[in-house]
Design goal:
The chain has 11 helices and no strands. It folds into 2 domains: 29 residues; 214 residues, MetI-like (MetI-like fold), CATH 1.10.3720.10. Helix 8 packs antiparallel against helix 11. The chain is mainly α and 260 residues long.
């Protein structure tokens, strides 16, 4: 039918899912199926959000705590991007580089962040340096592994085709290998920022006095489930926002992804 626009069902399904979760949460709290100590009422969580956003929590507003956490996350993540991606490319491109660095990365990659955070505190102190270092180390492995996998995934036919046209080793890397790895690198960035953000609470456990993760931990000491729920919701929404930023950059930098 001319002029008829077929609506996609995906946004409706997303909205329906979110509405169902909120309705279930409201029903549990409204009919007291679970103690409010464990599941606070949505209205109580909203009131806490407004209160902390305007009056603050333990000396800082919600924006202050959020910006402190984002500073740590973003700095650690960006430092990992500018070091892990080149190293991952080098590991994938050279077996000698892989022999040197791959065992080190594979050794510490499965380690829980709290297992070596105490060492970072001893070495770097209790200020932001140790927290950023922990987030940097958390962000590093997904980035290096994805970059390495991207290089390994480039077919030999493409490389041989470029060399047959007279391309040098550097030109092959710049015009064939590196562009081919970009989809994998951006996927690694999305995984990395998520893992970095999940490590935030661990990073703010020791001697922190600000940050959204610290606020949640501090509220747990006083059984403030409303603050805990609110903090987790804010962290989740912020994480979605960071992921969307990376996806937007990916669409601009790698417009050919999914079209081949």
């Amino acid at each position: 039918m001319p002029g008829f626009v077929r609506l996609s069902p995906e946004p409706f399904l997303t909205a329906l899912t979110l509405a169902s979760i909120l309705l279930a949460w409201y029903a549990v709290a409204r009919f007291r199926l679970v103690s409010e100590l464990f599941v606070p009422h949505p209205a109580s969580v909203w009131q806490t959000f407004v209160e902390i956003a305007t009056e603050g929590y333990r000396g800082g507003t919600l924006l202050h705590h959020l910006l402190d956490s984002l500073y740590r996350v973003v700095i650690g993540f960006l430092l990992a991007v500018v070091t892990a991606v080149p190293l991952g490319l080098a590991i994938g491109y050279s077996s000698k580089v892989q022999a040197v660095f791959d065992p080190i990365i594979e050794f510490y990659r499965p380690l829980p962040p709290l297992a070596y955070y105490t060492l970072l505190v001893i070495w770097l102190g209790i200020e932001n340096e140790s927290k950023i270092a922990l987030l940097y180390l958390a962000a590093f492995p997904p980035l290096s592994v994805s970059a390495m996998a991207g290089v390994k995934g480039v077919t030999a036919e493409r490389i041989q085709g470029a060399r047959s046209l007279g391309a040098s080793r550097w030109q092959v890397f710049r015009y064939v290998v590196f562009p081919s790895t970009l989809p994998d690198i951006f996927t690694g960035m999305r995984v990395s920022i998520g893992f970095t953000y999940t490590t935030l609470v661990a990073a703010e456990m020791v001697a922190a006095t600000s940050g959204i993760g610290w606020m949640v931990l501090d509220a747990s000491k006083f059984l403030r489930s409303d603050v805990i729920f609110m903090g987790n919701i804010v962290m989740g929404l912020t994480g979605i926002g960071l992921d969307r930023l990376i996806r937007t950059a990916e669409r601009r930098v790698v417009p050919w992804k999914g079209k081949a």
